[in-house]
Amino acid sequence: MLLRLKRQIAPAELSAVEATARSLGYECEYLGQKQELVQLHRRTDAEGPERPEFAARFADLAGVDAILDRGAVHDLWSARDGGQPTVVEAAGARFGGGDISLVAGPCAVEDEARLLEVASAVAARGATLLRGGAYKPRSSPYSFQGLGRAGLEMLRSVREAVGIGVVTEVLDPRDVEAVAEVADVVQVGARSMASYALLKELGKIDKPVLLKRGFGATVSEFLGAAEYVLSGGNGRIVLCERGVRGFDSITRNLLDVGAIAHLKAATHLPVIADPSHAAGRSDLVRALGRAGLVAGADGLMVEVHPAPEEAHSDAQQAISLRAFEALAQDARAIADLDGRRIVNLSDPAPPEHTHELSPR
Ligand code: PEP
Ligand code: MN
């Protein structure tokens, strides 16, 4: 690790750097004329490998201006040279490694008959997972909050009846167990991306997590959120770009396709795009969905409703079944062009993948 010290470092601050180095198993070598650069060498008798939290310990010291090179310390999300991409599998869907899955369904679970109708319709049109929130994060406490436990039960019975896995959001750490029991993939919404207590709970579960980027979060903050789940022991994360806040209200958010392309190179984790919350308008969902896939996304999550104008939440961005069918067709064409595959529910199950976290 290479540190740059503060220009006018106080003796006590310097001692704190040296003491921290010693306690973590490093020796200091001062470089540069003013000795403001410190190369940390791992002592041969030091116990255990270098860990991401070591860099964080130095970053927090008052005498340290910057960590210039983290050396062998890697975050768990980072792609390594020659490393394999992580393929996240859930109930017949696969994200990553050339496999693209489509997630479709209403914004919120509204009633069981409707959910059943939309689940079979999207499954027949190429979706491998059904989405639908039982717990809805709404900007106003007076708006429809979702059906809660009753919504989860509807997801459970529709999942059984149609044979399609479900993605549903958890808002509260106290609901993690109940949601994870029903969901094949547990969603963390944009508003909860920085709910670290929730992320820590999700690090302990044995279900994949679909982590949405906060609308005001940098890519680095987004990856920091993923690191919470990974460091808790859950290696199955699907990152979801859903648009960040822009200055123009022409669309609800700005789909950050640059971030999708960047993430595909920077991390081994699969990345999907949510064109619905980015566009905020049904007429642009197809174009943004296509853009997300072309940028490299390993899947799409789209809000689809059999009668969009009747949706209880996000009605203006819900697309019809017909429009979803057209987008699924586009997805197949883009996958063909890229030499990738769209995963179908009827595909035979692939050989078992392991989801061990790579060694630090
Ligand atoms: C949703 O998926 O319905 C949702 C609330 O999305 P986001 O968290 O991205 O706003
Ligand atoms: Mn929504």
How are the SSEs placed, and which strands pair?
Elements: E1 2-5, H1 11-24, E2 26-31, E3 37-42, H2 52-59, E4 64-69, E5 88-90, E6 93-95, E7 99-105, H3 112-124, E8 129-131, H4 149-162, E9 165-169, H5 176-182, E10 185-188, H6 196-202, E11 209-212, H7 219-231, E12 237-241, H8 257-266, E13 271-273, H9 275-279, H10 282-294, E14 299-303, H11 321-338, E15 341-342
Parallel strand pairs: 7-8, 7-14, 7-15, 8-9, 9-10, 10-11, 11-12, 12-13
Antiparallel strand pairs: 1-3, 1-4, 2-3, 5-6
Helix pairs in contact: 3-4, 6-7, 10-11
The chain binds phosphoenolpyruvate and manganese (II) ion.
Ligands (ions, cofactors included)? phosphoenolpyruvate, manganese (II) ion
Please give the largest β-sheet.
9 strands, parallel
CATH superfamily of the largest domain: Aldolase class I
Based on the structure given, which CATH architecture of the largest domain is correct? Alpha-Beta Barrel
Q: What is the percent of helical residues?
A: 25-40%
**CA gyration radius, whole angstroms:** 23 Å
pLDDT below 50 for ≥5 consecutive residues: which ranges?
none
Q: What amount of the residues lies in strands? A: 15-25%
- Structural shape: elongated
What is the N-to-C succession of helices and strands? EHEEHEEEEHEHEHEHEHEHEHHEHE
**Gap between N and C termini:** 15 Å
